[in-house]
Amino acid sequence: MLTPEQIERKLDRILLKVQKPGRYVGGELNSIQKDWDSVQTRVALVFPDIYDIGVSNVGLKILYDQINQREDALAERAYAPWLDMEALMREHRIPLYALESKRPLACFDLIGFTLPYETLYTNTLNILDLAGIPVRSAERDESHPIIIAGGHSCMNPEPMHAFIDAFVIGEGEEVIHEIIDVVKKWKVESNNPLSTCHREDVLRELAKIQGVYVPRFYETTYLDDGTVARIEPIAADVPKVITKRIVAKLPPPPTKFIVPNVDIVHNRVSVEIMRGCTRGCRFCHAGMITRPVRERSVDEVLQAAEEALKNTGFEELALLSLSSSDYTHVLELVTKVGEKFGGTHLKVSLPSLRIESVSIDLMERLKDRRSGGFTLAPEAATERMRRIINKFIPDEDIINTTREIYRRGWTTIKLYFMIGHPSETLEDVQAIADLCKRVIAEGRKVIGWKAKLHAGVSTFVPKSQTPFQWVSCDTPEQIRAKQELLKRELYRDKNIKLSLTDAEDSFLEAWLSRGDRRMAEVIYSAWKKGSKFDAWQEGKKYDAWMEAFAEHGLDPLFYTHRQRRTDEVFPWEHITAAVRKNFLFQDFRMSLEGEIRVDCRLNCYACGILPTFAGLRRENPGEGWKCPDVKSPVNNKQSAVTSLPLVGD
Amino acid sequence: MRIQITFSKQGALRYTGHLDLHKLWERAARRAELPLAYSQGFHPQPKISMAAALPLGFSSRCEVLDMKLERDIPLEGLRDTLQATLPPGIQVLAIEQVDDHAPALQTRVVSAEYEVTLAEPVDGSELKRKVDSVMDAESILRTRRGKQYDLRPLIESLAVVSSAEGKAEKILMKLAAKEGATGRPEEVLDVLGIAFEETRIERTRLNFQS
Asked: Which of A261, A269, A316, A410 to mutate to test the interface with B (most CBs of B within 10 A)?
């Protein structure tokens, strides 16, 4: 294997031939390079997209800190090289290396991928290949690192089951330490020449950790119609159902963010103010899988923000959550942030505000200047659709709020919608166009022709573990007809800017998000045929995917345009985000009836989080969680883990 | 208050371009809690300016920047404070106060000196001959980005450093660096028949009009 010095020498000769060579050299402020020989376990954390996107990922940052705080382990980083760099690396036989030490990834004991979205799957294969590591889990032996993955898309890990040794389901802050302990023990033992500990044994140990899923110990069988018959463990000691991990209390947020020496997408400090969401929008994957809602205190957020800004000098602070307006102390938080950082040229962003005038007050406290536009997400434009998706905002609220936004000095409003919701018709889409026209007309009454509207219309993709996991996607023809309608209606007004998602991108995401184990071969073939960077026009090859489906005798429509049977066993049936399947099904049925469920902090709908994590909740009562307190007596501390909701209950 | 900082830029920072270097200093100043002055207008920018852009891939021992502060601060200890907040690869060499009304740094640069290290030493006498012919030429017409220009008057000096065995290891050059008349080391190397990728280039000195 090449030494760091050899890799650096080779890099020197190629770096000036690629775009933005600063992506590939490391050396950033706050990056940590530990002495390689002073630790027992070396972990490489990988974001399988380019540096520009990966560096600011908060999930990996948390793990980077957690691991580097240990005396016995180190964590370094790697990202996907862009196409130009990859070509030169292959030509000059440079294996993918970690930015800190410039050691090949293959030297590490453990490689952790974050997979927040499905379009990173082919890149994951490509990165393993660039690192000289067998792409398939079954082909790796004792000399290879253990490959783990986590992140939102792993709530249905099955399409990637052939390539990842172990998945982390849920939150990684605590479980990463348990994983490292297992790998460390293996490494120590394997130094003993008489060791009989094999890779398979390590994986077996990992499978015993709560929240870790090792796919090779499970088997999926299928019915004649192609749907899943059952998923069963084929090894002793592995759980029948893998329940996600959560932390009872959010640990202190990271403050030593890496400060890149080249421009990236998000040059900012991010502080997570709250995890989870109580709104229950039925299309929202994050809202369903990140429960329960846990908040940080205002003081903790302020202190972290201040420290992180001091450590980085960044020009922007992002206060992250799925729904800022629902953070209990949001007014106090923005008031204090305004007081503390006002007049310092700091840009503060507060995403996901509710459509109400209070949101404008909040933004006014944060911004000295009305720049950058004001973003709201109505998602749908008819009352019927809003009831179906469980995001109910009356038109009048939208008109009144947007009028007020223009009146208070913003000239650009961004409205986010989705098309392709279940049972949506062209009339529902027409209503989106009509609403946009009404908003801009109101804007013109207030500020004249300066008023601008940006309508971002994406296409709905049903996700696993949500109430819409049963529904069919729109066909390509339906999507195109809806997009044509919007273009026809909105392109004429030069003050309305319409952005649409490419229909092919949505389908790619759709068949991967609800795919089964057979999709693994399709992913492999699509990658072999040259598709990678599937989230980028420059990378993805739709035709390669189509050929890959044909090669394996599978039909993409089976995964996308098919209403699932109510008793269908899903490919992810053995994985649970602790929101029960019968709760999701009930919510799906309610959507068909147009029934809404408002904020669950007002009234618990018994989604399944509390019985699953009763023990944790009992030990952490009060304000921190937005679920009700658990009052029942403690009879068995382990009851929380053993009384899991059963599959298909 | 206006201060002038002289610094080196080495290691991984060689791959950080001019605009990104601006950002790097802006953030360093914020980390060090310097009272940066900003321009007026809709997009206020910190008042930081560099003497001369350093091409990507070059290292330097002599970069100079000018920074305006909103108020006076003691210079004592500032070098250490700033150094502690900088990424590896940037070394603060000197900080001094300059007159608020002194002309902008960019207008005062007249020439830059470079040291080119060859990855593989070449025959010294042959390279020397090429250097002599360059220096003897009256003009060297070249085309860059579709425009023709004369490289020769931009070369103020050019010399080869050889080992005791007669192998050329380094080339030293001093090139004009005035607005609209800036000599580029890669262009000189090209004339000498040396591939840019086979070298390491370091800027060693910026000369200013007094």
From this structure: A261
